[in-house]
Design goal:
Layout: H1 8-13, H2 22-50, H3 59-62, E1 84-89, E2 99-104, E3 108-115, H4 119-130, H5 134-147, E4 154-156, H6 174-177, E5 182-189, H7 199-220
Antiparallel strand pairs: 1-2, 2-3, 3-5, 4-5
Helix pairs in contact: 2-7, 5-7
Length: about 230
């Protein structure tokens, strides 16, 4: 699939989606499908193929739905999202693999690398971060922070109150050891080229910046790691 750009009219709908009733969404469904979700699938496929790592793209998993699952949501929760989320991953199972994200709203584009922690992955994370190899991740994060200091760079994933034993607050990577999950991300203004084919290479360049973090996760975060 070749990405040729998002439809301007579809991008302009994104800020309004959270306030939509089902009937309003139904009226715009075709525009959102052909102008946003379809191009999104083309974009993440093309970018994943261009990056120098073996990434997986799956139509049903790589383009997140624009509606939320409200079965377990709080009363009054909004049904629709104001952004399009695209994902590609390296590993056999998305829910335990290092993931690269592209998040698009009407005004900005976010890029991220990260992984969700299963219990085995949490232990693999702590041992790798605490050991000598953890310095490589720390260096990659610092390089990203410097390169994207104007792009709202942050490391997220939730934090424990205390550093898990056998480590303590004196460890040089104490904040990483406290993580309950991990995502390094930054955001930039949505460029005008989002409606053109060149947006794919623009996104590829920014995900390339995240590859040192992604490659560290691939090397050290395997669910069957012996701990």
């Amino acid at each position: 699939m070749t990405f040729t750009g998002f439809t301007p009219e579809a991008l302009q709908l994104l800020p309004s989606l959270p306030g939509f009733a089902e009937a309003e969404y139904a009226r715009e469904r075709e525009l959102l499908a052909t102008g946003l979700r379809g191009p999104g699938a083309e974009l993440i496929t093309q970018v994943a193929d261009a990056l120098p790592v073996p990434l997986t793209v799956a139509p049903r998993s790589s383009v997140s739905p624009l509606h939320r699952d409200l079965r377990f949501a709080a009363p009054g929760a909004l049904r629709y999202k104001d952004h399009l989320l695209l994902t590609t991953w390296q590993g056999p199972k998305k829910n335990s693999a290092p993931i690269l994200w592209i998040r698009i709203d009407a005004n900005s584009v976010g890029f991220a690398s990260g992984i969700a922690f299963t219990p085995p992955l949490r232990e693999a994370w702590r041992n790798a971060v605490a050991g000598p190899e953890g310095a490589g991740l720390d260096s990659a994060i610092q390089a990203l922070a410097k390169a994207h200091q104007r792009d709202s760079f942050e490391v997220d994933g939730g934090m424990l109150k205390h550093v898990p034993k056998p480590w303590d607050d004196t460890h040089p990577r104490a904040n990483l050891l406290r993580r309950k999950g991990f995502q390094a991300r930054f955001r930039q203004p949505l460029p005008k080229c989002a409606t053109r084919a060149s947006f794919a290479s623009w996104c590829e360049t920014r995900l390339t910046d995240l590859l040192p973090v992604h490659n560290w996760l691939v090397a050290h975060m395997q669910e069957d790691t012996t701990v």
